[in-house]
Amino acid sequence: MLTHDAALEWIARWDRQQEGYLPDREERFTALIDAVEAAGRPDPLVIDLGCGPGSLSARLLERLPGATVVPVDADPLLLGLGRAAYPHLRFVSVDLRTPGWTDSLGLEGPADVAVSTTALHWISGPDLAKMYAELAAVLRPGGLLLNGDHMETDDTAPAIARLERAVHDRETERVFAGRRPEDWRQWWDAVAADPAFTELHAERATAGADHHGSESPLLSEHVNALRDAGFTEIGSLWQRGNNRLLCAVRG
Description:
Layout: H1 4-19, H2 25-38, E1 45-49, H3 55-63, E2 68-73, H4 76-85, E3 92-93, E4 111-117, H5 125-138, E5 139-150, H6 158-176, H7 184-192, H8 198-207, H9 219-229, E6 231-240, E7 243-250
Parallel strand pairs: 1-2, 1-4, 2-3, 4-5
Antiparallel strand pairs: 5-7, 6-7
C-alpha cells in the first residue's frame, strides 16, 4: 500500500526532478496562482489540465482555500500518488485527447479558470486544437486559460528563439552549477523499484500512459489553436527565456 506520508515524499522528489528542468518552477507557480487570485473570485472553479501528482492543485488550494480545484490526468500512477497525498482533492482520470473528456469532470457550472504546467506540450497539434475547443465550451465568458510551459518562438524569429533558449540554459547552469538533481527517467526507475507501486505500475502499463515525446512545443501552435477555439486575448504574463506563462481569455 502507498501511504500518505510515502506519497508526499515521492511528490517532493518529483518536484525536485522537475526543478532540474525548471529552476524557476516555483516562481512560475506563484505567478500563475497570482493570476488566478487577481481574476477576482475568492471561490473560483479551476480545472488543472495534466495535473500529474497534484503539485499545482495543492499549491492553489493552499493560497485559495475557497477554490474548487478539479485535477485531471491520464497517468494512473501519478493519479494514485496524488490521491494518496491529497485526499481532499477529487482527481479525475481522463485523456485530454479523447473527445468528450469534459463530460467526466462532473462540473456543476462553467469553470472560471483552467490551468496547466509542463503538460500540454505532450499533445500533438491537431489534438491540441480539439482539446482547446472543448475546454472553451466549459469556461465562462471571460474565463482564463493559464498554461506554464516551455514554448518556443518559431522559425519566423530564429535569433529570438536562440536567445530564449540561451537565457533558460544559463539560468539552469547558474542554479545547479553542474550538480543536477535526478532526472525524469531516474525518478521513474526509482518508482519502478518500489513495491508499493506494483499495482499502479500494472495499471499504467495497461493504460499505455507513458510519454513518447514533445509534440507541440511551439508558441504559435498554442496561440493559433486558442484563437480558433474562441479565446480573444492571448499573451505571456510571465517569461524567462523560453519558459513562459501563457494566458488566454475566453470570448
